[in-house]
Design goal:
By secondary structure, the chain is α+β, with helices and mostly antiparallel strands. It is built from 5 helices and 8 strands. The protein is globular and about 55 Å long. The relative contact order is 0.19.
Length: 220
């Protein structure tokens, strides 16, 4: 048995789906099949859990705008960072937008992590060293619903490949990254973040066909 992780955004016009944007975590499916296409993972590879509050199917409620405000404030402050500490203003501590016990669930290759220190160690540091000039937030959709929010860009990020990443050697080429983020907030802070990054497409831009790599390993 394998699980296929997917993120989906739909645009509806006149009661019909006019457009769908979908990210499939194919590297994670390959991992489950014993054909992990990366040489390592930065964090813990787990199946995405449901929200800790078990209320994600029908959020409802009137907090959507406030929830989205929390997420948008976090994203705005995330752009600037200290290259020595990898810290950004407005993220943690007094007035910070992330909860102390935040959970960050990432795609295959990054994995999941716990608390801000885990996020920096298992994702942020390696990502910023590889793509220090990344610019994100180019979203086509931002939604707030109850204690939940979701944003997506296609692509969301533009960046230059300046440092080695996931075992691949940097060559200075420009790259883009498709992103889908799903958040749960409470008490004015982000508690959980489910993240879909199109790493199949990103690695293709780097010159690596992950599916071909997995097939080659199978046939070897």
């Amino acid at each position: 048995m394998t699980f296929l992780r997917a993120g989906e955004f739909y645009r509806v016009e006149n009661g019909r789906i006019a457009e769908a944007r979908i990210i499939l975590d194919i590297p994670d499916m390959l991992r489950q099949a014993g054909r992990f296409p990366f040489p390592f993972s930065y964090g813990s590879e787990i199946t995405f859990p449901a929200p800790a509050t078990q209320d994600g199917l029908l959020p409802g409620g009137g907090n959507g705008e406030a929830t989205l405000d929390i997420v948008e404030g976090m994203l705005a402050d995330l752009h600037a960072f200290d290259p020595k500490t990898m810290s950004s203003p407005g993220q943690t501590g007094a007035g910070g937008r992330w909860g102390e016990d935040m959970m960050w669930y990432g795609p295959a290759g990054i994995g999941s992590n716990y608390r801000w220190d885990g996020f920096v160690q298992d994702h942020r540091e390696s990502f910023l060293r590889a793509f220090p000039d990344r610019k994100g937030g180019n979203h086509y959709c931002r939604i707030g619903d109850g204690d939940y929010a979701a944003v997506s860009g296609w692509p969301s990020m533009t960046m230059t490949w300046k440092g080695d990443y996931l075992g691949e050697t940097a060559d200075g080429r420009p790259l883009t990254l498709r992103v889908m983020d799903f958040y749960r907030c409470s008490g004015g802070r982000i508690r959980e973040n489910w993240v879909m990054l199109d790493y199949t497409d990103l690695l293709q831009q780097m010159g690596v066909d992950l599916i071909a790599r997995a097939t080659k390993e199978r046939d070897a």
